[in-house]
Amino acid sequence: MSAAEMNAAALLSLRDVQTGYGALQVLWGVDLEVMSGETVLLLGANSAGKSTLLRTLIGLLPCWRGEIAFEGERIDRLAPDQRIRRGMAYMSELGVFPTLSIDENIALGGYFLSDAQIRKRKEQLFALFPDLAAKRRDAAGTLSGGQRKMLGIAKVLISEPKLLLMDEPSSGLAPVFVKQVIEVLKTSIGAGTALLIAEQNVAFLELADRGYLIDHGKVRLSGTRAELEASDAVRETYFGL
Ligand SMILES: Nc1ncnc2c1ncn2[C@@H]1O[C@H](COP(=O)(O)OP(=O)(O)OP(=O)(O)O)[C@@H](O)[C@H]1O
After folding, report:
1. The model's pTM
2. Which of 77, 132, 203, 212 would staple 222 via disulfide (CB 3.0–4.6 Å)?
3. What is the pLDDT of residues 91-144, one digit of tens each?
4. Is 48 touching ligand 1 by the criterion CB < 6 Å?
């Protein structure tokens, strides 16, 4: 069965995805789905393969075997920009260009939109992120770690993606900023945007409809938020219990 046939209603559907770096195989056959508007958490210990999976989904790494379908169509041979034009967006752990201004960083996220669309979306985003609006001409490198994450989020939201892939939005942040990022994601993500978030921080479970636990490049467990919260495997991975 192809990835698209597995669940025709899924926004994103993966079947037997395998990849790695040179001789090192990291993903060993991942099956996963994200439905429209859903928030899905990708949990897993260090080196489990979460970042590798997100890079493969956006096309920064080739898919060695298996299939990736987006809105029912194979995308695993498309270049990243073609995937972005179809409605995917990717926020890496770094997220922003420190030497460019806040304004320029946000505009970059919408590089394929018209100037008029960029202007309109920027004003909507600045209304959502007043801290960024106040500093819009300043270099992104002058922002605090928490504000940089907000900018990274604003930058990927400008294109109003159907699916936003986020790699560890909590990385490098103090707990107080992690809470802020979670709040911003709650309030700024529209119903039309599905999220797939790779995280080590279980606090993100509060955002999730469902999640997957990745272990050594395979899905060890999947379930609803409540099922993951109650899971011994998740507890073992995150709290060593
Ligand atoms: N550019 C690379 N070249 C070679 N090996 C890599 C590269 N990036 C990651 N790896 C290896 O791939 C494996 C999975 O790493 P990955 O970054 O996907 O894990 P992760 O689950 O995202 O972990 P973390 O939470 O620590 O980022 C690790 O063994 C890592 O050393």
Report:
1. 0.91
2. 212
3. 987 778 999 999 999 998 888 889 999 999 999 889 888 889 999 999 999 998
4. yes
pLDDT beyond 70 at 59 = yes
Which residues lie closer than 8 Å to 10 by C-beta, 6 or more apart? Answer: 33, 34, 35, 69
C-alpha gyration radius of the chain: 18
Q: Is 87 in the pocket of ligand 1 (CB under 6 A)?
A: no
pLDDT band at 4 (very low <50, low <70, confident <90, very high): low
Residue 117 Cα to ligand 1 midpoint, Å, equals: 36
Residue 49 CA: which ligand 1 atom is closest?
A: 18
Whether 237 lines ligand 1, by a CB cut-off of 6 Å, is no
**ipTM computed for the complex:** 0.96
Nearest CA residue ID for atom 7, ligand 1: 21
Architecture of domain 10-87+201-240: 3-Layer(aba) Sandwich (3.40)
How far is Cα 117 from Cα 110, in angstroms, rounded to an integer? Answer: 9
| Dihedral sign from CA coordinates of 215, 219, 223, 224 | positive
For residue 60, what is the DSSP state?
S
Distance 51 CA to ligand 1 centre (A): 7
Every domain of the chain and the residues it spans: 10-87+201-240
